[in-house]
Each structure stands twice: as C-alpha cells, then as structure tokens.
Amino acid sequence: MPLIQVNAVDESPRAVAGAAPLDEQLDAALAGSGAGAPIAVLIHGFRFSLHRRDMSPHDHILALDPTIDNWKAVSWPRALGFDGAAPSEGLCIAFGWEASGSIWSAYDEAARAGLALSRLIERIVARAPGRPVDLLGHSLGARVALTALSACPASALGHAVLMASAEFADRAEALLDTQAGRQARILNVTSRENDLYDWLLESLVAPARGGGRALGHGLDTPPANWIDLQIDHPETLDALAALGHDIAPPSRRICHWSPYVRPGMFGLYRALIRGELPFEMLRARLPNARTARWSRLLAAPRPTLPLPFARNAPS
Questions:
Q1: How far is CA 85 from its chain centroid?
Q2: Rounded distance, CA 247 to CA 263, Å?
Q3: C-beta of residue 134 within 8 angstroms of C-beta of residue 187
Q4: What are the pLDDT digits (tens) for 140-188?
Q5: What pLDDT digit, counting tens, does each position of 73-85 carry?
Q6: CATH says 3-285 is which class?
Q7: Cα(32)–Cα(136) distance, rounded to whole angstroms?
C-alpha cells in the first residue's frame, strides 16, 4: 500500500469517501513497511478542491497516475519513489484540503488543515514511534505544513520541504519556536520566478490577515535546522550539481510551480527524505544566496516571455 488518500475535514483527518477507515489503513500500511522506511505526507496548494473532480488533488499531483491533463500534473508520489514496488519504499500519504475560493478563505482554511495534519501525524507517531514523518508542501500547502508544527510532538517530524511557500517569514519564525519546530529539518525552496506571487501575498493577504514579508525571500537569521534554497541562483545550482543533483536552469521569468516541475527537483527531495543526502551536508555545501526581488523579471529582455498563468487552474 504505497499511497493513502486523506482529506482534512473539520480540522480532522479523514479517509476519502469509499476507502477503508483511516486507522485501519494506517495499521496495515505501517505494519507492511520496513522500520527504517520513510513516511511522507504530501500537501497541495491553492485552487484544489475536495468537491470538484476536475480540481481534485487526488486526480492531479497527489495521484500515482494523474488523470487530469495538465502540464503541472506531475505525480509527486512516483517522483519520490512511492509506487508500490517494494515494502522498503515506505508509506506515502496524499493529504487533501479545501483550497478553492478566494485567496483569503484558502489562507484561513490552510491553518485549519494544519491542525488536521498535526492530528494525522499524532496517529502515525502512536503507531510507529521513532519513525519521523516528512512533509512536502507547495504554496499554501507549505502554510499547512508549518501550522502543523505548533501541535506536533517534539520528535514527530523529520524533514519539511516547503516549495514556493505562501506564508510570511514572521509566522514561520514563530512556528519554529515550538517543540517540533526546533527539531524538524526544513528546506525552504525559493526562486525569483515566484516574486510576483510573493508580492501578491504581501499586497492582498497581509493587510487583511497580518504578516509582513513573504517567506519566499527567506529568513534573515535562519537557525541550524533551516535552509533557504534559491533554485534560480547559478552558484546554488553548481553546488547542487557537485552533490550529484543536476537541476535544470529556470526557463521562465514568472513561475509558481518551478520547485516541482523543474527537472531534477524531485531527485533532490527524494534523496533528502530517503537519507541519501544528509541535511547537514546540503546546508554546508550551499552558498549564501539571496538575489534581489524582481531581478529575473527586470533582467535584459528575451525574444519571448512565456507567462504560465492559469486563472482557474489549481496550483
């Protein structure tokens, strides 16, 4: 059982309709996987819905075989090595939550989904003590992951990979000052390709919900368990290549999905959660990179400027 589908409902984790009860699925999956195998929870971002099939995350990026025809429909579970080939590959959980509607309602709902996620993690830890849970979230899914830190047991989490986070730096710093936040190893994946979305978060959400600078520009003084990884920085890509991870250079000036559609990115995440690339080694080898906002958008013009916007598409 490589994949369990879970939805956040009323701040609680629930099995998807038609599936066996969640506790029953967790018992079977954890008993069938090796003691050292990873446990990963994957969390989508904005625009996905639990009530519309054409916007379901379980038919899109969280599916083993996405049925939605979209250039962003990359199977996260398969890319991370969860395909049911062997028990040693571990357990993957596709975590869905209601992220449709306005950006303000989705931002609020992400916090409630984070509480549901923390309760799911508690159930896993109760069944598999000593096996840390890794999180991988995109956009508002990163807010879901960070919110879960506030209610998780101290040693419950291993890695948290935050891709193009739709959250604020001050909120992240507060959540790092929790039992789980001080122990989790967090990879904050940023890019100047996401500057427009960071600016929109600051311009639209911050005035209504509080918050300051978007997390896409990293932390000013990151703790030892935090890495800001700017994936459109040439020296950073060189450092990753030296570690055996060739990441394709950016091809767009604006792209919210670059941290998971860019070739090579999932190989890096897979190595991290499977222990092939120690977090401390990655942190030690990376340059201190933080280029100015809008540096990609304001660079010398190219012959074409593809802008991958999709007004009603989930992200």
A1: 24
A2: 6
A3: no
A4: 999 999 999 999 988 999 999 999 999 999 999 999 999 999 999 999 9
A5: 999 999 999 997 7
A6: alpha beta
A7: 23
Residue 294 CA: distances (Å) to CA of 119, 194, 236: 39, 9, 18
Residues 6+ apart with CB under 8 A from 14: 6, 7, 8, 22
Check if the beta carbon of residue 48 is closer than 8 Å to that of residue 314. Answer: yes
DSSP code, position 96: E
Task: Name the nearest CA neighbour of 103 among 53, 60, 139.
Answer: 139
Nearest to 35 by CA among 130, 100, 121, 119: 130
Q: Which of 207, 218, 304 is nearest to 254 (CA)?
A: 304
Measured CA to CA in angstroms, residue 56 lies from 9, 47, 51, 119, 262 at distances of 15, 9, 7, 22, 22
Q: Where are the chain's structural domains?
A: 3-285
CA distance 277 to 268: 8
The amino acid at residue 76 is: W
